[in-house]
Request: fold
Amino acid sequence: MNDMNKAKLDYYVELIEAQLKQLTASKPELQGRVVEAMEYSLLAGGKRLRPVLVLEFARMCGVKKPEKYVAAACSLELIHTYSLIHDDLPCMDNDDFRRGKPSCHKAFGEDIALLAGDALNSMAFEVLSDAAVAGDIPPERAVMLISVLSKAIGTDGMIGGQVIDLASEDKEIDIDTLNILQTCKTGALIEASCVMGVILSGRFDAIPFAADYAKAVGRAFQIVDDILDVTGSFDELGKPIGSDSEQHKNTYVTLLGLERSQTIAKQLTVEALGHLRYFEDYEFLSQLTEDLLTRRS
Reply:
């Protein structure tokens, strides 16, 4: 990524980080422990890819100051963090580390971690509805945003993907089932991010193109994740490598092998870049998409 686009990414991430800090700033005495747990996981780092996609698709669709929608964009990071907290729980993936730190349930206990995830889920929709009440987003668009996000995390989205994932442990599945699993578990929230950016702009004609881009980049993103679980390190990933294999999970690497997985990730990236041609001034997102393919974390 060139210096100009790196500065733009840093600007977006700075805005997002500041908004996330603000969302968890108030810690009432009696309920403060759960807010501390929310903040612990929310501010533990991460690429902030999903809210960045919201802001950039809004900008590419004509919003001159996309930063005015940073709160709405952060609803995606709230949901993403909630999903990570719950994924790490002993009843799910049972991971002790996340982003180089003890998982939320290791730091705060399973009960508070569970509630912290629940609270982040609720807060995402509070943020979107509050933006409509305040007049920052037209009510009809806010309803569309809530509809897209709720569907992305439901039984046909993220939660459904996790159910398939759990049911597939210690079993052999075919590539079509794995594609469905990851389209739901990882891809649905990435697609929601892109589509929500378009909705904020009011350019509803662009929704199919944003969705097509997201489907391709979401699949590529997951394949790279699977590759990194084999080729990465704890320092790079912030969690032990090889955890997918230890838990007998089906991944693109276990089904297709490392080399074939790398080839498909590259093909999907090219496909995603092709869908960006519908939009104007897409150089930043084009470079970000290419960087996701070669990332090490």
